[in-house]
Structure of HDOD domain-containing protein:
Amino acid sequence: MTETISWEEIRKLSENICETADLPGFSETVETIANLGPENDLSAQELAALILKDYGLTSKVIRMANSAFYNPSGTEITTVSRAIVYLGLNPIKEIALATSLFETVMRETPTSRREKILKLLSQSYLCAYICRQLAEKTPYEDEELFVCSLLYQIVRIVLAVYHPGAYQRLLKREASHPDSVQRMLFRLAEKVADCWSLPPSLLYTLEGSPRSKTPGTLAHFVGQMNQAIFELIKDGDVSSLKKAVENLKVSPEETPGLIGKAIEAIKQLSPQIAMEIPSLDSPKQPEPPQETSEGDFYFRAISEISASLASRKYTYEEILLMVSEALCRGLTCETVALSIMSLDRRRLIIRYGLGPKAQSLKGEAIPIDNSLFQTIFSLAKEWTGSIEQLPEAGALEKLWPGRQVLISPLVISDKPVGAFLCLRGQSFGAEDCQKAEALKNLAILAITTNR
């Protein structure tokens, strides 16, 4: 017979949970998203850089951004940067968080134990996508409600992935002492929040929070919704959910529609999770456009950026971010950095970079006096070569030794204003230079028309 978990075991778990249950990748995503500033160009660059580090995350974010849940108008979106600009920072933060959680948990969980994990994830995702639809009827922001609902059970998920034996003993204790288990979960939640640098406002909505007992608080609402979703998934009983939303003036007839729309969104993220949710009669949502293959990504990106320029709805900073992503993905680069000419015109200052390790380049200065850069700017043509041919760019060589470089100069009215620096392992050819030149010209057009 399985023993129940003890407070002594919880104490030991809390001491080493950061080392044994990191959910690598997801913890970084949570910390980055939690600390992003208000919606502005810098936040958009940081979020795009985070997503573009991982191809799987990138492709799923694009797919979700094209889903009817987030994009009911059906406007086709090809790039992460356009998705951020078109849909706004908060929806993409939600998508990135939801996608990263699924990708990381599946990667860390052995196949033999995935069934139980999928049950937990189905409850978290269904609650998050239903709560987001209800946000306008509550005092809470849609992103805040989504994130708190998605992460409500994060301690259970961590235990089920990394400490399955302890989690089984926790469930055993929960059957007879549910209140003490809630206190145990929050004890561990405090430690996880500290490890992941979660803000207090998020910590106090995690499962077991004392604030969940106070009516009228976000913690209380999220806890009620999670319990209702638990009963829906466990027994197919929708009555608790109907009761939980009746104070929001949601009629019982509307509830299946909320569930159906949430399930359709989850299907775009993971059909595996959606299969764990009982099917209910609900309106069918249209399928999103087919995922863009990398083969034709470049041409779709050119079309998307051109349309964005023609609409005059986007700032030149937003267009430059789209161009940076198109260079990174279209030329299969490890990283792309955008550099801007300094006021004394003697250095290039790296504004931001996309790709793994690229954000560490931010603010780096590359001297251009009497260097190869002077020739590149005077010719105003793309240049390719090895990183070793650019001794001035020491920071780049230190991070990416032995890489090949493509420099695409930004020259307006014979004056250098900056450059795109593209790096990858294999050499760049004439076709790559042509693609870079076309994208660079769109960037120049964006800068000149926004003057």
